[in-house]
Structure prediction request, 76 residues.
Amino acid sequence: MGSDSSDDAQSRFLFEYRHEGSEWALEVRARDLNDAKARLQTLPSAAYRGEIVASGHIPAANRFATERGYHVANDL
Prediction:
């Protein structure tokens, strides 16, 4: 899922777009702006994984979960 220790060193880039008359924004984590733009180009191949109903940061959860075979996305 692209969630390794190098994610911490990545920058966050914000892209705006319009959809059905409203403005929206999309955050892309990448090494630099060119990498972020390249990642946007791959969105047509994205696969639906489910609805996110909550997110947050739990200190040390990643190590705890991975030791038990789970994945934790600390996106906030």
In short: The chain is about 20% helix and 25% strand. The chain has a mean pLDDT of 83.
